Amino acid sequence: MKQTKLLMPTLREVPADAEVKSHQYLLKAGYIRPVSAGAFAYLPLAKRVLNKVEAIVREEMEAINANEMLVPEILPAELWQRSGRYQTYGQDLYKFKNRQDRDFILGPTHEETFTELIGGDIKSYKKLPLLVYQIQSKFRDEGRPRFGLLRTREFLMKDAYSFTADQEGLDSIFDQMEDAYRRIFDRIGLDYRVIVGDAGAMGGSDSKEFSAPAAAGEDTIVYSEGSDYAANLEMAQDFYERVDRSSEAQEAMTTIDTPNVKTIEALSALLDRPASELVKTIVLAGPEGQLIAVVTTGDFDVNTVKVQNFLGLSEVDLADETVVKEKLGASFGSLGPVALPEDIQLLVDERAADLVNFAAGANEDGKHHLNVNWGRDVALEEDQVGDFRTVKEGEMAVDGKGKLAFTKGIEIGHIFKLGTKYSAALGAQVLDQNGRAVDMIMGCYGIGLSRLLAAVSEQKADEKGLVWPAAIAPYDVHIVPINLKDDDQAAVVADLEKAVAEAHFDSLVDDRKERAGVKFADADLIGLPIRITVGKKAGEGIVEVVLRESGESFEMQASEVVDHLADWLQK
């Protein structure tokens, strides 16, 4: 490809709203352009990267017998109403009506669609297991699209769905898909971690996320410094062994005035007791407005995702303070577990459940109880106790092997065991080997393909520009002549371009009438793996080779370049 024929509108100045490295460079190098907030056009260089990413994905999906297909982006709302997600998915759902006044949505994901299709055609367990996938745009009305391709309203995704007749079939495909994802990300050249994830709005049970560590990541990865344990912050667990303190003497509960004491820090200072010996009570609200009081030790925060999963709710949020005060008679900062109304569900973190003679809010503004004890002052059953805390750095990992550390990460893939959540709701059944109708057991597997461009850019780019791994670079070789009017240079360029093509590699030839410094700067900016400079030694058949990632440079005979391309691209 001649550079004069390529749509590659580079920028000298980065737009002010481009906050992260990937957004800045992908704009500056002419890979993407915004069309509206959170929606981007993929210009030729970006499209070539996406094509190579898609080819890798297709090869690995084919290797595990996945069937590629394509379903509509416009979906009837009725499908989502039957699954219940039309009401619960939230404001991210694009909803509209057609001219017949029927309700439709733009697909943010396609569990319902594939379940309806497969359920309509597959009626016997003998046709299972089945694995299908597509590569398609998805739509989510993000409240605040930001960071370029990292948080958008339209994005390209590979989504796959498995259908099996039994749990063993699901487990097998889940494991195969995890291995396939590892191969995909290894081939692309990403640094990533496989972590315990939250199924969230997808539903289901087991969930694993593939996260690429990067400063621009919006997710927090929690990992052990001494083992391979890793999870996102919402799901991470620390190591804790329950302590039997039933034999310890219980002091008489008293109430003290604590004016202006609304934080654990202030209460700890007032009582001269560590936060770990105090409790905090946070009131959450479920989807139907039900209130849940969650108690943790003062040195930990309540983890709403763990509470949500423990109760099997679609969502939980911090309750409205006005509602809480009307119900309990106190504001945030003075709440506690003693004498809670019966219609407020009590959950207690295991660390807090092991305390004796602890301090807690008295459900009266400006007052706290001292020497509160479970059983005597607050009824507590074991099924109300669990892990409801957000872990902290430095705590022992749940496997007991090393301390927990935090890093930022970009979610690039996610796999879920859905079970029968969608098949039961939509009537997708097969006859089993005993002739009984059973719900198909499902899995869901996604990769954010357009987000991969940002993830790779965040991890690989340097101060000069983008640095593409060879497997997904838009072109393998950048041939940069200093002066094409020079007959020797023109001849070497023509020979190189032909030899590269015959060796089945792609080349981009900078045939622009620009100064050498401009050409070199643009070459570094767009980030192709190999740059071959054809300059004043062209008459001797000598060129300069620069490897973009390592910065290594050397001179050699142009006729020998092609013999080394494969080795250089594997470095």
UniProtKB/TrEMBL annotation:
Q: Which GO terms describe its molecular function?
A: proline-tRNA ligase activity
Question: Which reaction does this enzyme catalyse, per its entry?
Answer: tRNA(Pro) + L-proline + ATP = L-prolyl-tRNA(Pro) + AMP + diphosphate
Q: Where in the cell is it found?
A: Cytoplasm
- Chief localization class? cytoplasm
- Claim: rRNA-binding is one of the keywords in the record: no
SUPFAM superfamilies found in the cross-reference section: Class II aaRS ABD-related, Class II aaRS and biotin synthetases, YbaK/ProRS associated domain
Q: Which UniProt keywords apply?
A: Aminoacyl-tRNA synthetase, ATP-binding, Cytoplasm, Ligase, Nucleotide-binding, Protein biosynthesis
Q: What EC number(s) does the entry state?
A: 6.1.1.15
**Domain (Aminoacyl-transfer RNA synthetases class-II family profile): residue spans on this chain:** 48-469
Q: Does the keyword Translocase apply?
A: no
What family does this chain come from, according to its entry? Belongs to the class-II aminoacyl-tRNA synthetase family. ProS type 1 subfamily.
Free-text note regarding domains: Consists of three domains: the N-terminal catalytic domain, the editing domain and the C-terminal anticodon-binding domain.
Subunit note: Homodimer.
Q: What does this protein do?
A: Catalyzes the attachment of proline to tRNA(Pro) in a two-step reaction: proline is first activated by ATP to form Pro-AMP and then transferred to the acceptor end of tRNA(Pro). As ProRS can inadvertently accommodate and process non-cognate amino acids such as alanine and cysteine, to avoid such errors it has two additional distinct editing activities against alanine. One activity is designated as 'pretransfer' editing and involves the tRNA(Pro)-independent hydrolysis of activated Ala-AMP.
The name this protein carries in UniProt is Proline--tRNA ligase
What organism does this protein naturally occur in? Fructobacillus papyriferae
